[in-house]
Design goal:
- This protein is mainly α.
- The chain folds into 3 domains: 219 residues, no CATH class; 162 residues, no CATH class; 118 residues, no CATH class.
- The chain is 68% helix and 2% strand.
- It is built from 20 helices and 3 strands.
- It has a 3-stranded antiparallel β-sheet, with helices on one face.
- Strand 1 and strand 2 form a beta hairpin.
Length: 531
């Protein structure tokens, strides 16, 4: 890379300009995926052109990158989009720190943290070091940097300006379109916009500088020659096996007592819903957060003890593993109870985003706990970090695959039809107004279902009328950089029932805005909150 340093700077500064072109005053859409993909391709090109080939295990990360990058303009649900952007950047970070070595599967928590900090440090310092090394190498080779006299350039510009101005004035008079374009070009250099232009130029340079650091780090520090705790642990085990056994045994006894005492209604569901006077909601909600917290800290305790406990004999290892497995097994039982309680709450009150997130999270943390048991039995403690990474990736990938907002609409309507099975609806269609464009096609599909009761169909139609009104009210000309597949699908779905929506009359003279249904009912276009 030192043989042609200008190539590096041209490409990274071009990426900085591309960022400005794609994102300045633009909404999030296809621009994120385009910039991320272009950046990845550019970095690969720069490294490959210098004879630096990626490890085949590093290439496994590319499909993950493609999946999460695509999700950013396919799904509009906020948490899904946030996780997609986050994991796209995470996968790019992993590619940068393990490009040559490919040992990211063997990373411990310390490796993930340490290598991320090294990459951040490289983004700050490596471009400066690179410039210094290039100048030093040129000096040792006897290559003198070219000295440029800028005064001839300045004099040429001063002479050219009045000449160009005269010809431009004449050409503007000759062609109105050319004159307008010339005026727009001159206005672009308006002094009123000068602070903005300076700011944009600064962050373009900053982004290019940081990306140069990423490229240089991948070229020089991604070999993974030595991982943390590979030869010896960072913190040598110092806790005796007896002490660890006492801690695990005490926790195991506590968890066993909790499960035994509460077993009478642990899995009792609605048959024991009024124990001690609890309402349905109180039973479903009470203790849910505490059980999840217990699961988290139990796992943290087990991982910590696994790292600091001395297990010098086979008997000590078996005792520790046995107690650890028993603790995790009881935690799984409590998690199953929490999952069942959540199911009762969903059955009684329907799905929301928070409940859906939690539902999926419990599944993945349960799978992670099972893998933890297996790794502990096999004495593969180094794989804990990788297992957690896989669980995190699985959770983040589950949200767009499920399509959270569409899932909420579908399940709540199904619950209204099949569980309540009457014409008086309790369906909270106003909550649908809080959902993203992902929900609109499913709402339209439900509205067009002939088997839907009139009352439910009317409320869904009112929600769609409110959504359509808000979209028209917020209508703005979006550039292609902000194209989003979810918004396109929502517009197409609403267009298919445009004639039906015209029968719903919007009254915006008062607040909140109301919609009058074809049956004469008035429904507010305001959202209601429930968690």
């Amino acid at each position: 890379m030192k043989n042609n340093p200008n190539k590096l700077w041209i490409f990274v500064l071009a990426l900085g300009w591309l960022f400005d072109f794609l994102f300045w005053e633009k909404n999030l859409g296809v621009n994120f995926a385009i910039f991320a993909t272009t950046s990845l391709v550019t970095v690969f090109y720069l490294l490959l052109s210098n004879g630096l080939h990626p490890n085949r295990f590093s290439l496994v990360l590319i499909p993950l990158f493609g999946f999460f990058a695509a999700v950013t303009f396919i799904r509009a649900e906020p948490m899904t989009t946030f996780l997609a952007c986050t994991f796209t950047l995470l996968v790019m970070t992993l590619l940068a720190v393990t490009y040559l070595g490919g040992r990211w599967v063997q990373y411990t928590f310390a490796d993930y943290l340490g290598k991320s900090l090294q990459l951040f440090g490289s983004m700050i310092t490596r471009p400066i070091i690179f410039i210094t090394d290039v100048r030093k190498d040129q000096a040792e080779a006897g290559i003198q940097p070219a000295k440029t006299n800028i005064w001839p350039v300045v004099r040429g510009i001063v002479i050219a300006l009045p000449v160009v101005a005269i010809f431009a004035s004449l050409l503007s008079s000759a062609d109105v379109v050319f004159g307008q374009q010339l005026e727009n070009f001159i206005n672009w250099f308006s002094l009123d916009d000068l602070p903005e232009l300076i700011f944009r130029l600064v962050y373009i340079i900053f982004i290019g500088y940081a990306l140069a650091g990423v490229v240089l780090h991948s070229a020089a520090q991604s070999m993974d020659e030595k991982l943390s705790a590979e030869d010896k642990p960072i913190i040598p085990p110092f806790l005796g096996s007896v002490e660890a056994a006492i801690v695990l045994g005490s926790v195991l006894a506590l968890f066993t007592a909790f499960v035994v005492i509460q077993f009478q209604y642990f899995f009792g569901g609605s048959t024991n819903i009024h124990i001690d006077g609890y309402t349905y909601a109180e039973y479903a909600r009470r203790g849910f957060g505490e059980l999840v917290t217990v699961a988290f800290f139990s796992l943290l305790m087990l991982l910590t003890l696994s790292g600091i406990t001395k297990r010098e004999t086979e008997i000590q290892r078996r005792i520790f593993s046995g107690l650890g497995v028993a603790v995790v097994a009881l935690v799984l039982v409590m998690l199953f109870s929490a999952f069942k309680r959540l199911g009762l709450y969903e059955e009684a009150y329907g799905f929301s985003r928070l409940r859906t997130y939690t539902h999926i999270f419990l599944i993945w943390i349960g799978l992670f706990l099972i893998v933890t048991i297996v790794l502990e039995i096999l004495h593969r403690e180094r794989m804990f970090a990788f297992a957690m990474l896989v669980a995190s990736l699985g959770f983040a990938a589950s949200l767009p695959i499920l399509n959270v907002d569409a899932f909420i609409v579908e399940k709540n309507i199904q619950r209204e039809i099949h569980v309540l099975a009457n014409d008086s609806t309790n369906l909270d269609t106003q909550y649908f107004l809080d959902l993203s464009d992902d929900a609109v096609p499913v709402l339209v599909s439900a509205y067009q279902t002939s088997t839907l009761s009139d009352s439910i169909r009317e409320r869904i139609g009112a929600s769609l009328a409110c959504i359509n009104y808000n979209r028209v009210l917020d209508n703005q000309e979006l550039t292609w950089q902000s194209f989003h597949l979810a918004a396109y699908s929502a517009d197409k779905a609403l267009a298919s029932i445009r004639n039906d929506l015209n029968e719903y009359k919007i009254n915006n003279n008062n607040y909140p805005v109301e919609v009058t249904t074809p049956a004469g009912n008035q429904i507010p276009c305001s959202t209601s909150y429930f968690d």
